[in-house]
Design brief:
Layout lengths: L2 E6 L10 H16 L3 E6 L6 H10 L2 E7 L7 H14 L28 E7 L20 H4 L1 H9 L3 E2 L3 E3 L8 H16 L4
Parallel strand pairs: 1-2, 1-3, 3-4, 4-5, 4-6
Helix pairs in contact: 1-6, 2-3
Length: 197
């Protein structure tokens, strides 16, 4: 039985209560359980035990992160979660430090990961799809969604996890298309997660 750690990276604001994040998570968990995956959950803005969270990463075959895009990155509560949990795991539990060895101190930085699983990032963003991959849109200046998420991809790579295709829902506050997003999400989870685990 495959094991999935589902992380809710939402941070509550009065204008962003987390309903969309919960909707995506509920849909994903329903699909995972329908395939008889074993699921453990974490909500980064709620209390957690650091050692227990480290063990969840070691336990999981796949990590699924659902998060809004906040100031071009993850929320502060999820950043705190990473600072707590990833730091606790990096000295021998989830990685052997930064991967370098005494005999070659300039090589293999970031390649000390001890995990052998996969991860998927699913993001809700207020930016429209057209803002990405387009040199004519000068704010992002042609970068892709995954370029924007590079720090998160590197964080997971640090521990040895390999990426599954990222999912983005766009324009969720100004021009939401939630029914379409959920249909795309369901197809994405089936094709890019379930069929590849």
């Amino acid at each position: 039985m495959k094991k999935v750690l589902v992380i809710n990276g939402h941070q509550y604001y009065p204008f962003s209560e987390g309903k969309l994040t919960k909707t995506f998570i509920d849909k994903a968990v329903s699909m995972f359980e329908g395939e008889e995956f074993e699921v453990k959950m974490t909500n980064a803005q709620e209390a957690y035990d650091v050692e227990e969270e480290v063990e969840k990463f070691f336990w999981a075959d796949v990590v699924f992160l659902q998060t809004p895009l906040n100031w071009m990155g993850v929320t502060w509560s999820f950043k705190k979660y990473m600072d707590d949990v990833f730091t606790a795991g990096m000295m021998g539990k989830l990685s052997n430090g930064d991967g370098r060895k005494e005999e070659a101190p300039k090589k293999n930085y970031g390649l000390g990961g001890l995990l052998d699983g996969k991860y998927m990032i699913s993001v809700s963003a207020n930016a429209p799809k057209e803002a990405f991959n387009n040199k004519n849109e000068t704010f992002f200046d042609g970068i892709s969604e995954d370029d924007l998420l590079l720090p998160m991809h590197l964080n997971f790579k640090w521990f040895g996890l390999k990426p599954l295709k990222t999912f983005f829902s766009y324009d969720v506050m100004k021009n939401p298309e939630i029914d379409n997003d959920l249909a795309r999400f369901e197809q994405h989870i089936q094709q890019e997660f379930i069929s590849k685990i």
